[in-house]
UniProtKB/TrEMBL annotation:
Protein name: SusD-like starch-binding protein associating with outer membrane
Regions that span the bilayer: none
Record-linked InterPro entries: SusD-like_2, TPR-like_helical_dom_sf
Organism of provenance: Dyadobacter beijingensis
Record-linked Pfam families: SusD-like_2 (PF12771)
Top-rank lineage group of the source organism: Bacteria
Amino acid sequence: MKIFKHIPKLVFVLAVLVASSCKDNLTEINENPNGVDPNSANPNLLLPTVMTGVGNQYLKLGYGRIAGVMQHTQEDAWKDGFNDYNWSEEDDEWKAWYGFLRNNNLLYSRSVEMGYTFHQAVALTMKGFIFGTIADLWGDAPYTNALKGDQGEMLPAFDSQEVIYKGIIEDLKQASAMFATADVSSYAPGYDVYYNGDKLKWQKFANSLLLRYYMRISSKLPDIAKAGIEQVYTSGIYLKDASDDAVMEYIGAASGDSWPTAIAFDVSQSNWRRRRPAATLLNTMVAANDPRLKVWFQPVHVRWVSDATLKTGVDEFIRKDGVIQNGVKSLTEQELRAQIATGAKFTRHFNPTLYKPTRPDLFNGPLNTGEYVGIPAGMIDPTYYNENPTTGQQVQNQHASQLSYGYQASKGGLLKARLASASETAFILAEAAQKGWATGGAEANYNNGIKQSLQTWGVADQYDAYVKTVAYKGTLAQIIEQKWIAGWTAATEAWFDYRRTGLPALVPGLAPTSRALPLRFIYSNNELNNNGTSVKSAIEKLEETNFSGVRKKNSQWSKPWLVQGTGKPW
């Protein structure tokens, strides 16, 4: 995305797609000189509009609340929608994804009109990605008759998940074939923010999405999935190395062009400091001495120390290099960061015999003395965890780990939206091989999935030691667990794997709405009000469960077609 500084911001104003309906005598005075005429739009200028919108939205899911569902992270305040799945109707998400489709549809139609084969293939790939995400998130959705408002189709019927998945598979197959022979001479360098016009990498991306969606439907349509995955594997054209991952960098020019927790656009640093590593992920990584741990997370600023000589249950004040700091119960994040950078070590002592929890209704111990400490999933009030002295909405929890400081930045380094990866592809092939499908050895693919993830995060030199610790023993649980870890910042895929397999075997939290992990997004009231017949038909096909609650079928705990009859995930 570094090329964005060469692209006028006005390129991104595409809300004028219907402006051409003005009467002839009003055309001149109603013509927007800053807009894009859909009849003359250059496909090159449309590429970044589609690609950045999709990249941003996908990251906001996988680094956002779906990371809460999959227990990658937890929020330690204002956490209902993040930790506890207390979701409402998903109108903004729905509008966003269909908005991307409208822009992508213009990209495709203009590419066809101008004979730009490379751009057509890109548009088909993005169509598959976007529609696939919609079906993954909600279930049934407008597909066949979507995007036909100019043809009078204002209230499109909802297609089944099955129809949508089969449709996007055909689009991706067509895109892959087009990339093989596409003419890239019409591409203007710098406008493709994923691959800068490299058609082979795009073909690998399209084929890797095929692997993703074939595996997605493997429990419902195993014959189609097996044949499709084996065909892609035989072709040899898919993401094999982390350097080919489908990623989008950030330019840091504004909040919408920056990493979501950038402190440049969040003066209080709340978005960063409120997001903590979840104990589920962190403890798994600590147990295996995972080299990615230190890349993603920080040690606790003030570590608990067990001290049987202490005359009270806990130190009231913190200690700096072993010396009690009288009157100092806590320091700010900025103060701790500055002093730790100079080599200072902060601790707080407790006597395990005398210690009694301050609020046993919210935190009942034991105290976590680890160097890295994550927040348990679904706590009723996570600000009390580990006897945090600044509870409620105060400062921060000095006894729990933070995300790495790199996640405070606006751009650069490891801050990328990742849409698909060589690591994910390798784990898909490992799972397929374990099923007995012709995709190479399960162990070799499993090991490669780990290797590619370590390469992504800059710790490939520690592969040999780590892979021995998590050596493959032939279980699907191992494959999915390593895929779940590798999905950091892209937890959406881990969610869909969990829904399909029940793995990792995550335990929901204690909050009332955390009785089970959710399975889907809720259809919005806006859609119900405006396209009620179609939405109600889709809702009727959902399977109500014991967890569905007052929303009944239109609940985040109801089962869409993809998992109905599979007994998964619960």
